[in-house]
Amino acid sequence: MTTSKRHADDTPNRPDDSPTRPLNFIEQIVEDDLRTGKFQGRVQTRFPPEPNGYLHIGHAKSICLNFGLAARYGGLCNLRFDDTNPCKEEMEYVESIKEDVRWLGFDWGDREFFASDYFEQLYQWAEQMILSGDAFVCDLNNEQIREYRGTLTEPGRNSPFRERSVPENLDLFRRMRAGEFPDGSRTLRAKADMAHPNLNMRDPVMYRILHAHHHRTGDTWCIYPMYDFTHGQSDSIERITHSICTLEFENHRRLYDWYLDRLGIYHPQQIEFARLNLTYTVMSKRKLLELVQEKRVSGWDDPRLPTLRGLRRRGYTPEAIRRFCDRIGVAKFHSYIDVTVLENSVREHLNATAPRVMAVLRPLRVVLTNVPQEHVEHVAAINNPEDPSAGARQVPFTRELFIERDDFREEAPKKFFRLVPGGEVRLRCAYIIRCDEVIKDESTGEVIELRCTCDRKTLGKKPVGRKVKGVIHWVAASTCRKVQVRLYDRLYTRERLDDLPPGEDANQYLNPNSLEVIDDCRIEPSAAEAQPGQRFQFERLGYFCVDSRDSQPGQPVFNRTVPLRDTWAKIDKANKSR
Ligand code: ATP
Ligand code: MG
User: pTM, whole model, 2 decimals?
Assistant: First the structure.
């Protein structure tokens, strides 16, 4: 196997953040083609979304692949909107797609194309095929066409209109364009082979009549080319070298090649790869649209969705998504990627880049009885142990604090190293405290306050002669800010959503607890002015991002991107190194 190393300077289109790895099978094909001079050393790819929805993490795989190849081999990648379906497409989607591709870190320069820009050319090619006897106007309706098509085991039958003369076909096709016939009354079909083992070759429809407004061409057209009569030619027009698509187009390749042969025009090479499937995730645009329309989520950018806007709002970084795409690789067979692979990618990136702050999700008041009422002290806290250049900040420390409710137990199991009555714990970056008294609400029995003493000699020092294992986070009660925090869990409770038993629907597996809103979270003052999109690690709680939709100036709302993995292992390690 050939391997090649990546260097930051040979990927002009994207920051290089992927580790060195063996070539994938597509890179091998491209390298072979470069060696044999198949496309005169050119590498020209494209990302071809249909503007009928928002991009998701599956599209990111295709984007990273296409732009990544171009960048790696000194080629170019076009952004092309495959907008052949006037009914489902909108400019809103076009704009959002551009925004998302840019956000992911890719640049298509001035190579922004629309299949609809090729409508006139495609029409001319359709006439050319009529003239060469390769296309005919058919009066069968959709249902009849299906009946005539045959099955995988039986050949189809020729349409009774197949032998129309060239002049008649030309006349009818022109009249179709002129708007003389109602929707669905006629089609233009290829004269291929009704007995072909590949059903796509059985006289496929090239044009249909559709009196519909198109988001770009308006009412210019009332006939629209089929996707299959558009995609290959669009690639050809743009002189794409490697036309990369997902596996379901494998048996369309034959038809695309047939059209290009008949028209005698430039041939790109189509290469298929397996689409991304993620556990606990639905990815089809139809299904995502349904979730949005049925208001099961708050919109296309709901942080629980795998859309790029959802992931962005959740706090995912472009670097993390690119790294994920690189890591999962490309293959020819279908498989599922565990969603934890995605989560780990963002953890890795945020671990290196996100400043640490302290926040308490479910506050429990702690009063330090040996600290005076008016006492305000500032303790130094390191912003990011992974990044010395991030420096340190001063965190206010006062008589009254909040700690996490979960960090105190009246009756604790053996390995509970946090606070218990009479026990000691270290406050992160600060002192060791001992719990002397537990105050409860008389009527409910709920613990409402802890009275503790603070050992002032223990700032940054190991206590002599006693073992304090736990370190907990805290905020000063008088200076902290109250903020809303949203915790997310997987949207579905089922691992694989594309092989549901008959009669079942993915909605049955929606997780009722996928969103938890906490209104009474307390955060240290340094993060209170955080701007939308800013990301933090809340110590011991995970990575959080300031919500870009619901935050107000001075009143950030935080979305949890991912919890920290293995929190306790980390804390224990930190203890040992003290
Ligand atoms: P969906 O099935 O979600 O509706 P689609 O294939 O219809 O997606 P397009 O807009 O046609 O969506 O996709 C644009 C490009 O992204 C295509 O080249 C397509 O193959 C690729 N793509 C879409 N989904 C995935 C996926 N899950 N994994 C990898 N590539 C994908
Ligand atoms: Mg598609």
Answer: 0.92
